[in-house]
Specification:
homodimer, 358 residues, alpha/beta, Rossmann fold, Dihydrodipicolinate Reductase, domain 2, 2 domains, six-stranded parallel beta sheet, six-stranded mixed beta sheet, 22% strand, NADP (chains A, B), NAD binding (chains A, B), Asp_semialdehyde_DH (chains A, B), amino-acid biosynthesis (chains A, B), NADP binding (chains A, B)
């Protein structure tokens, strides 16, 4: 009496981790289906030690599927998620395509699992950089309120997929082993696969993630702004982001500045974060303890440290937030949503088909 | 009738670049003296194509020296700079040791060259991360005033010296070529040579530069706060920093948020920065033009881009500031101070010995 769970984009950096997360999940799973594009269809993946062949994603792929986890890019979700819903599946979508749709809950389970009950077949998993910031800030918002957020990110290349990881490693080897000038190595993907120019990331910091919007912020930056307001249900919360890619493979780090509505003592902020599910306080500068990207890899938690008062603003607080962008930032948050849907008995066909087929 | 110029710490990452900057300087130089610790004394360096032997730094090294550029660590400056002054030299010190001394001008020539005339034998060169921020923000401060600064840095390992560069390259090779786990590579220097624990920088981001002060900020962060106020002569300017080391060898990048006193149009801010000496505007997101660390290497300029309004604060502006930390951040700013001292006819023995010998 378990579920049939489909993973769309099963061979990608996030998809492979979704499979690992499903293997160790408490979800009752009878069957898994691994779907991909033509390029990867036919490959063999493993699930709980047994081989599973990757199938081509088609409009007919979702018959009998109860839960479909999508992580194959926005256009794939746009094209196939409505078919999954039509077949009675509940979709957990890890792309940005449906995130701002009014009928789509945008969920970080620790923060707003209560919004799942309003789903119409599709639930969106927020952007990686947003999720970890929500885990760190929600305990602060609940106790003292939030007036504003200014965040500068230090994002890993794996957020741009396995090909960006490969590109980064190749570029670094060309510089380190072959003596190439970092300016002359060939870049094909970063900073944004869909943009015109590509720049090396080896020994560089690229202040562009995703393409630019018409207000001179990138889509990545605007995702942090819009998704934060939707998840926290705080339309008036001030949020501005600067999103930067650095030569790190896994785990995003964030320098986060907030102003609270009520004045908060730092010791109390630390205690609130430490008590919040999914958050781990790593903050003891006398012992040089603070979150580090390499230490967060493989963990589903969000690590928070360097919590300290702004030197001038009465209610200003700075902190350093680190999490594995492929796990809590994507695969784990998606599977966690699926678990929460199951717990709330919400894995069921929706009555109305709110999402039109193209 | 030219100067005798000594470089203390001549074999270091900054010292070698000071020598290159002196070679192309307009200063009238008759003779150079390259000084170092015991470890490097006797080595041969080149100056304008001729070999120069590196000498051990002693209390007697400065006889006949007109200008002494120090970049061998705070303790070396503390010990030997007063002897240089006693011998009639003017010291340009690239360490933090004298920066907050009331008799020591702290100088970014484009910003406050007028303070040089008050020197008493020692002029301090600010911290690398401060200097480039000053070049970017001084044109804004002059036209609209500054209320506050929040900065998150993306700093290159070369700021911690040649040994940190070597450590970073070794760690990256161990991970990339030998398949080492980034968590298990041996670290001996970063995040701070003088601190107890050392962490890998390969594929990591370390939210610690220098050791921690008693307010939970690091010394590096407090340098940005204190030096900004002194250089800009704005004791009430609000400045809070988060200083982070990333796996980049050369050039610091900074995500800078400011609030101006008067409201400023973004186009006017861009024009003011573009017109400021030492600053280069690289800001055209429609063509993906923004400053990049790898492009700044070898340049004496500070590159500024991603200039945009905060999404909420009326007078809030974000920008991205990049410069070669070893050049404008250290070697070039020091030589530039020396050039400015010459231009203002200030290379001369001081009447009073304000700096006591130990």
């Amino acid at each position: 009496m378990g579920y049939t769970v489909a993973v769309v984009g099963a061979t990608g950096a996030v998809g492979t981790r979704m499979i690992r997360m499903l293997e160790s999940s408490s979800l009752p799973i009878d069957r898994v289906r691994f779907l991909s594009s033509k390029r990867s269809a036919g490959k063999m993946l493993s699930y709980k030690g047994r081989p599973v062949e990757v199938e081509l994603t088609t409009e007919d792929s979702f018959a009998g599927v109860d839960l479909a986890l999508f992580s194959a890019g926005g256009s794939t979700s746009a094209k196939f998620a409505p078919y999954a819903v039509r077949e009675g599946a509940v979709v957990v979508d890890n792309t940005s395509y449906f995130r701002q749709h009014p009928d789509v809950p945008l969920v970080v389970p620790e923060v707003n699992a209560h919004t799942l009950k309003d789903h119409h077949g599709i639930i969106a998993c927020p952007n990686c950089s947003t999720i970890q910031m929500m885990v760190a800030l929600e305990p602060v918002r609940r106790k003292w309120g939030l007036e504003r957020i200014i965040v500068s990110t230090y994002q890993a290349v794996s957020g741009a997929g396995q090909s960006a990881i490969n590109e980064t490693e190749r570029e670094l080897k060309e510089v380190l082993n072959d003596g190439a000038d970092p300016r002359s190595v060939q870049a094909n993907i970063l900073p944004a696969g869909g943009d015109k120019k590509h720049y090396p990331i080896a020994f560089n910091a690229l202040a562009q993630i995703d393409v630019f919007t018409d207000n001179d912020y990138t889509y990545e930056e605007m995702k942090m702004t819009k998704e934060t307001k939707k998840i926290m249900e705080e339309p008036d919360l001030a949020v501005s982001a600067t999103c930067v890619r650095i030569p790190v493979l896994y785990s995003h780090s964030e320098s986060v500045y907030i102003e609270t509505k009520e004045k908060a003592a730092i010791a109390d902020v630390k205690a609130a974060i430490a008590a919040f599910p999914g958050a781990v306080l790593e903050d003891d500068v006398s012992n040089q303890l603070y979150p580090q990207a390499i230490n967060a890899v493989g963990s589903c938690d969000t690590f928070v440290g360097r919590i300290r008062k702004d030197l001038d603003a009465e209610n200003g607080i700075h902190m350093w937030v680190v999490s594995d962008n492929l796990l809590k930032g994507a695969a784990w948050n998606s599977v966690q949503i699926a678990e929460e849907l199951h717990r709330q008995n919400l894995v069921r066909p929706t009555e109305e088909l709110k999402f039109k087929l193209q």
